[in-house]
Amino acid sequence: MQTRPIKTAAKVISRMHCLPHAVCGLLALAALTTLSGCQTPAAEKRALLLFPPPPEKPRVQFLTWANGAAEVEEGAGALERFVLGDEERGLRVLNKPYGLAVHDGAAFVCDSKGLSIARMDFKNKTYSLFGIRGPGRLRKPVNIAIDPLGYKFVADTIRKQIVVFSPDDQYATAFDLPEPARPVDVAVFENELYVLDNDKTCQIVVLDRRTGEVLRSFGSPGSEPGQFRLPSSLCIGPEGFLYVSDTMNWRVQKLTREGEPVWTAGQPGYQVGQFGRPRGIRVGLDGIVYVVDGATEIVQMYDSNGDPLMHFGGPGRTPGALDLPSSLAVDRSLIPYFKDLAHRSFDIDYLILVVNQYGPHLVNVYAFGQFPEGFTVAENEIAAIPDVPEGAGIGPAEEPSPPEPRRTDDKQPAGKTPAASPDGM
Q: Were both Cys, which of 102, 183, 319, 420 would link to 155 (CB 3.0–4.6 Å)?
């Protein structure tokens, strides 16, 4: 993918006893095999996928990926092959993830096809599902926000509600939204919930976090600042401002919590600083704004003034590449469980988890940080995402016409159904 030169990274902000004997024997063999060296040796050298690549100063390193229980639970992959049938094993992998949030060492992933929330608990090395039955049964979960107490607020587009789960993942309640309703994302700030509604009203509805009472709403359809066209994601930054991915206006917006515009950034196109399909948006504690582009299949980074900094990812199916990415999360609580995968000289500030809807690598883990001043990485240690073959992938947008909603950007395998709307949900 060809892009215009981006700002240098220096511009980035500094900072069984009841089982038959034969089965028991197989379990023992599987456990011994797992423990005795079928995993990649810790000392084995791994190629480094860095963004931007040297000779520029790298700020982002790809670490690993996870698709389900096999990457979370110790020995789960080997045991599953011997014990679980196809049906149960299918419940222990993600089907079509969309949004995610991280809390206290665990990633909570909305599975829009599996109709559940997957708890990938890297701290306790467990994998579980909730929202699959009873009054908390989810119909199409697309995004999730978690408050400091551990309550989960799930935007469900078919239920037309924000479904609330307790810190122990039990159903608590559900909040209704004014009709017509199509909630696609939710953010928490103190005792308020900010719900992005991309039905024909294109508004942000503010609810009382405790009762679900509607406190206020703002926004309307259109292309002026503070208006939206099929918005797909929102978040609240550490300074208390709202950030919205305004998908079919091909831009992102920064607003006050009362809906007053602060700035807009982006225009139609497929270069850095432009958007083909902006989707998930999140802000780090350092103020860097991260925006997933489902068309170019990269994550763009902006400063708090809306100026582009750099990008990472790229189309493909190799580890570290992105395949119809949808959302992301920025987190520090997971660092202890992934830091050994980073280069020993790479100082990690926080992790960035990016969701692919398709492909062999669904939840991708990147580290944001830096090498010591003057440190150089040997050329033979560096990996790269292969170039897109000429004539394939995404070409430059023609100005001034905005790009049409693409069906081929999904790049699904044969048999996959293209997304029905520009937000890909």
A: 183
